[in-house]
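[job 0412] stage=complex_fold ligand=flavin-adenine dinucleotide status=START
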Amino acid sequence: MHILHDQPAEFYSTFRLKTRLATVIEVDNVTELARLDITSSPLVLGEGSNTIFLEPLSRPIIRFTGTAITESWLHADKCLLHVEAGYNWHQLVSDTVDRQLWGIENLALIPGSVGAAPVQNIGAYGIEFADVCVYVDFFSWRTRSIQRLTPEQCQFGYRDSIFKQQLSGDGIIVAVGIMLSTTAKPVLSYQGLDRLAATCSINDIFDQVIATRKSKLPDYREIANCGSFFKNPVISVAEYHQLKLTYPAMPGFILADNTVKVPAAWLIDQQGLKGYRLHDVGCYLRQPLVLINYGNGTSEDLLALITLIQDKVRTAYRIHLEPEVRLLDSNGHQYV
Ligand SMILES: Cc1cc2nc3c(=O)[nH]c(=O)nc-3n(C[C@H](O)[C@H](O)[C@H](O)COP(=O)(O)OP(=O)(O)OC[C@H]3O[C@@H](n4cnc5c(N)ncnc54)[C@H](O)[C@@H]3O)c2cc1C
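[job 0412] stage=complex_fold status=DONE, emitting structure tokens
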């Protein structure tokens, strides 16, 4: 176990606002986790690619850094991987592609840890974590033991799960179980992959996803960002048809429950905010849904930019944009 004091927040968030974190505890096994003297529930962090610290944080942070992987073959073509939460997600995707195990190749280059993947049910290019999840091992602060949750118990939704809802603050994910297959299962429906042949290899998909992502998204190691800042809003079909009368070009994807998901990037772009800069924060030129920190961004500027975007979109379309990124105040509470 490592206990670090007075840490620069820039090391723990890919948005890199300059502030301080009072205590960061890193634990790499469950035995030590069970021994920890936890009085108030600590804040759980992975690699900080979906987290922004707005203010100096007094509450302790805990990170599970175990990275062990074990595999079991349930059928000739089905491999169950048990992966500890501290493993890097993209590294896992890359390892499985090297081994020709199908299932998560579309999720290449998503930053962050394996432990965070179930929390917002990460997704891209037509695949979500939920599609391969067999279980999630959750260590509860209260019972000091691991509970194994089935995908149904995880209540996966669009960028959502029980870990963001009822179980938020109750414990930490220590491992996940995912099922992959040696049988080819290409998912090519998404724009960017639809030009690949149905017979393409897993490496073709992996390479294409990486190339497409690199052409659209800034590398967070070069330009500080947390990926898509807002969720794509979901509205009723009636609201969508009403809006289409005024904005005929407005895109929308009809969902199974007869609602419509509208691309937040389109809404922001239409407000002329592509490349918009407020002091040292702004909307990325190639993808305005990604907010960036040019280097010396402040929480005041970031909050002003969020408000400006939300106000413009609400005024034009009566749609509220909800942040996908976790914004934390000095007590570790969600800000917006
Ligand atoms: C350039 C860029 C592109 C991105 N693209 C995508 C994308 O295509 N699709 C997508 O879904 N996301 C995307 N994201 C968001 C981000 O990669 C994911 O949300 C990722 O899962 C966050 O991982 P993390 O370890 O950095 O999480 P953190 O930011 O450290 O934490 C995120 C949340 O998970 C919780 N958490 C972390 N670890 C654990 C654990 N062990 N147990 C319990 N809770 C935990 C935290 O408490 C917090 O609520 C992108 C981000 C960036 C910077």
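The mean pLDDT is 96.
[job 0412] exit 0
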